Structures
1.
Amino acid sequence: MNIAVLGAQWGDEGKGKIIDLLTPNFSIVARYQGGHNAGHTVYANGRKFILRLLPSGILHSGVTCVIGNGLVVDPQALFAEIDEIGAAGVDVTGRLAISSKAHLILPYHKELDVLAEAKRGERKIGTTNRGIGPAYEDKIGRRGIRVGDLSDRAPRQMLEDAVRQNVEARNHLIASAHMDWRQVLDELDRVWIRLAPFVTDVSVLLHQAMRDGRRIMFEGAQGTLLDIDHGTYPFVTSSSATSGGICTGLGVGPKTIGAILGVAKAYTTRVGEGPFPSELLDQMGQRLRDGGSEYGSVTGRPRRRGWFDAVALRYAVRINGLDALAITKMDVLDGLESLEICTSYRVDGEPLHDFPSEIGHLARCQPVYERVPGWSAPTAGVRSFDALPAEARAYIATLEQAVGIPVALISTGSDRHDTILRDDAVAATWFALPA
Ligand code: GDP
Ligand code: IMO
Ligand code: MG
């Protein structure tokens, strides 16, 4: 069975750790959207890796990693990442596949991102300034340049025209800019020399693998609430981070996705702007930032923190069709006297159980909390469910009840091994463990 692992909150849920952990059960790990705005942290062999474009299964030799057509690829960022893990002894030769239909992030996209944010002023999104939004704009605007356009089989004149028109349009937009389109084209020729060996028709590769009985793990970047359609628009990223993006982002049908695991922190964080009903601006928020080292893996910006929001999680279950949850960073809640779980909202004095579809509505939502006891014995590093303090087990049970799906996995530290796989039928399906 193929599975998907994706973010159920606003990103940074700990997807990298979970995907790395599950990778030995799969032959292929395939990213379906986003770009190097992602930062997926994996600790392996005593080292910390932050994966941006490369799928989080890349540290396991023998596993094929796929960059789907749904991604926007900054070639320089990709090469830097390949060099970085190469220096740590991880070789991607022969096991990295990049879709010929993936779009390229070019130097002017980054500048346009910075410029757009400056223009938004107070209404800024707080993007990662990586050129993600502008590259997707060009894709939807049907003027983007795709990886396969660089190949010597693609019509050269079309590439030249596209580069020239794009660069001239951007020179027009930025008064002080005088970028030479020929230089951009020359650079793309150099890019192609290094990129070519990885480029393929990813849909064909995945379907062949499935015919051969090989298992695929689909990897989401960002999270449900950052999805371009279903997230807290306009404070979102520009891609389909929810499970619907898997099909369009890789060229596979919906029936190829056997089960979907949503990753969520035991509390909530978000980087960047936008409404956040359970946000904590007090000492408790500070405590979560310090305890959870809540700083962005890509930009280093402090993440905003809040209590677990079961309303948002129920929404993630509905939008993605989640089968089970992986709850991460349990250990960060160690030592708290009591905890709050946001189980519903109140808006304009009325109770609300469903996540609103409109941003102004969400901004007016007040969290309604259920208070539960904390635990004094640490969960940090605990590796079996029974060894958790009783109150921590009760916390998980309350989350399951509030969200409505089982918690199949609990993470109690950033290390691969600091993980609890629930020893039940769910885990048997997911992780090929004996039931
Ligand atoms: P991703 O983008 O979803 O892959 O998540 P990030 O890597 O951006 O952020 C998650 C952070 O939490 C990383 O620094 C991880 O090493 C760390 N982390 C993951 N799981 C746990 C956990 O269970 N406990 C603690 N303390 N840290 C964790
Ligand atoms: P991973 O995969 C958390 C946020 C940015 C900003 C918004 C738009 O590590 O979970 P963009 O540069 O994408 O146009 O920024 O989305 N954002 C993330 N937040 N985790 C991420 O990725 C994110 N990728 C983008 O902070 O608010
Ligand atoms: Mg991250």
2.
Amino acid sequence: MSKKHILIIEDEPAIADNILLALTQEAFESYWAKTLQEAWDFLKKHQTHLILLDVGLPDGDGFSFCQKLRQHLETPVLFLTARSSEVDRVVGLEIGGDDYVTKPFSPRELVARVKAILRRSQEKPQKNSSTNHPTSLKLGPFILEESKRLCTYFDKSLSLSAHEFNLLKVFLKAPGRVFDREQLLSKAWTHPESVLDRTVDAHIKSLRAKLKEIAPQEEAILTHRGVGYAMRENW
Ligand code: CA
């Protein structure tokens, strides 16, 4: 099996050195970026299997970076967090991280997490957009173009996070069908086992807010109490 490539985005050299050492000992190919800009430049050019992402970086924060990343790539992200308030955000909304470790962490703990994430991402069939058939889904005011990851609603384009887009796609493929949280997690998340159930609710809430912004009077995603959610069938 070829070596796994891991990108470390961390501005503290001492922490980065420790991680590099631990990963090299485990025969991973690791790279270090001190800034988000360096990281982008690297990711554009190199195939990367996992990203270790610090939260506070000189040219921005890891959360925004991860959100931006998720619009282009599904590379798993392990957050290196410093405070419990950061942990709350990682497990909370929109960010799309796969796991986290809290500083200070032991190299052994980190390596264990890295291996677990890589194992999971290997078990998943890789979603490769180039092998997908270009499809567009239409329902009422929605037009979703899967290959371009674009969706319009009443002719206005929606700016969606990767998970919001995936959720909407699941709904639009089966209008009227009620999905419970577990089903939505398994269909819309790459690593559902590392996500909390309430994450689904949070994403539905933000997705609804974006739809309401365009058409305040329309109820597109219906709640079935105690069961789950469904896309409105009749438009
Ligand atoms: Ca930092």
3.
Amino acid sequence: MVTNKIDEVKRLLLERIASSESPREILKAPELKALYDEISRLPVAERASFGRSVNELRTELSDAVETVEQSVQSKSIQPLDVTAPWQAGGSKPDFLPMIQGSQHPLTMELEEVIDIFTRMGFEAIESRQIDSDFNMFSALNFPENHPARDGYDTFRTEEGFIPPAHTSTMQHRILKQGKLKLEAGGDIAAISYGRVFRNEDVDATHEHTFYQVEGVFVSESATLGQMLGTLRGFFEAYYGQELKIKTQPAYFPFVEPGLEFAIEKPAALGGQPGEWLEMLGCGMIHPNVLEMAGIDSRRYRGFAWGGGVERLVMLKYGIDDLRHFEAARLKFLRKFA
Ligand code: DAH
């Protein structure tokens, strides 16, 4: 008779569980509690087996609850279409905002710069973002302890590596690799572009992180005139107009002679006649730099230049503050999208 009671409660509660969306509450039903209360009222001999049956019932009900819970949950998870432009799970498509990303202006312009030099016949190599004292200074003819080393505000890691302060760190590698090409009768013509780092106070014209492009050309007959022609050709292609250029002497240990190269600010970009903008450093590669890379400086000669990318871009678009580039402000970035 008592077992009948268990069957009755079982039927009743299983039915309720099966038709409930949140069945866990049913495990606390008074009918089940009543069965537990019953145990103590039974003759001692019957208590153990009745108690066991009630426990079994509880386990069975609790399994049933879990089954229902799982199926409710799986119904609420919809297959996710990651290509759909709307929110998953909505009854009607709720379109996501369709804002497309775009290239950073510096990336865009750097690609333009690379494109121009590539069309002139230069191979383009990305510069390293961590380098050695050797490539930063010694390979570029900076004597040990020479004050010119201080001019570069270099960062250093605790291990003594250097996040390069100029892309000239790539010159030695380019020369060493190009040596075979020279000996096979060819020329070395490469640019190296990438991020450089300086320990500087940041203001409208100084950043701790910026971009440079370096160029190296070596042949049996390279001349300063070829260098000026190459650079003028580049600037005229980049700004899409004829330009006046001028140079003045400058000291860089890795070139002799060393020059600063300036262009006259074009009227179309708000320039006045006679307003010169210094764009980069350049010169004839110092014989020591060639020799250091195993290149015979009596037979071969070369020119090199290096300059900042931000400066180019700022002039082209009339940007007044270098800090815009790293500020991640969408209002600024979207002007270039
Ligand atoms: N590395 C120099 C700087 O960052 C720029 C430079 C000057 C590069 C003369 C050259 C060069 O290749 O020939 O200030």
4.
Amino acid sequence: MSTSKSTLSTHPVPQNLDFSQLSGSLKTFEINGQTVSYRAFENIVYVLKPTDTRYQVMNIYIPEAYFKNQSVDGFTAQTAPIFFPNDVGGYMPSQAGKPELNQRDGNTPNAIMVALSKGYVVASAGARGRTEANGRAPAAIVDLKAAVRYLKANDKNMAGDANKIISNGTSAGGALSALLGTSGNAVEFEPYLQALGAAKANDTIFAVSAYCPITNLEHADAAYEWQFNGVNDYEKMDISMLDYKVERKLVKGTQTPEQIRLSGSLKQQFPAYVNALKLKNPQGIAMTLDAQGNGTFKKQIEIMLMQSAQKALDAGKDLSNQTWLTIQNGKVIAADFNAYAKFVGRQKTTPAFDGVDLSTGENNLFGDENVDKKHFTQFGMANNTAANAQLADSKIIRLMNAMNFQSPTAYYRIRVGENDRDTSLAISQLLALQLKNQGKLVDYALPWGVPHSGDYDLDELFAWAKQISTQK
Ligand code: DHB
């Protein structure tokens, strides 16, 4: 009995990685009065030497039209982009996604259903995650890359254009989506991919959609305190698993004197980091911060917040309770970042990511096969309160951060809800600025009133996807 569960949930190790030998099953669903017929190829183990086939599997869905030489929305079997959503939350192990309704937001069709209805081929890969001994960093990104290699190696055998892979993810999954884009084909991953028996192909992708990416973990603690220093009351999740998919119960508290002290030191680290990146905004202005944490970089975030607020105002929302905004005659004329931070409130205690007691999900992410949890910053290590604490290998820490690579991917769409307090707004701002400075096309916005979540604007997401994949 005790083995039946794992037997049921695992899948046989494949003899080869040849998609043409698989047979799919014909299925349909209804969406907005339209019947969508598609073939489902599920639980494809995408590497030859998997370590956990509960997660190292991919579901591939192909519109039936492409088996009949028909087109959908202007796409054909040759030209249809491959939508590549991951379902990672909290850096936990994740399953391969399916077309289904989102029960949590009122039975709306999920991104996979919408993608299929618009003629995309969909490939959703599961990935190992932090709670399994073999799922610690960099396992999840290695798995997603292996799945991309499978698609590229099978480009001729499969409908969809593997040169048009569009990744999507939210939160930890958004961080992995961004990382998949920036680290495309980076040589550092080669040994890990070879060890898994990944298909021989490159793993660059065409475009990235990332919702509220929890990336740049090495600098996320300093960024958080730069934003929230002085905001000592918090509403923290009552469980350590900060997965956007789990219903959030918040408990109130106040930072201890020690947390307040740590906040002050972390805040001080942030300007030097921002200044060292030598970023410019689209107008060519250098993005900097002074020792107090003020400067053009902060102003840039204020401008983004003003744009978000203006859009909400123009759509008829009442913003009169937003005390951090200055509005005159229907125009947002100023946003005060410090007042904004107080208004939205602190959600994490200091340090937000590398817990001094090794209690966060991220500490778990940077563990290894033998050690459950580790620090991943010098600061966390220096202020450690846990027994026998270790610092993770700097080479591995580096592999999890989308900021650490020169992106071969040209297109990015980054969305972070204006109400998101899971990481500082500085984190996505720096990512967007760095990508723009690398010459990439970045569509970045902070949609008004939106909390830590994703896939809430699928019409706009697929309008962007269509535009980038069909422009000449
Ligand atoms: C997620 C949220 C967090 O606050 C975090 O630290 C890591 C992951 C998530 O929702 O995936």
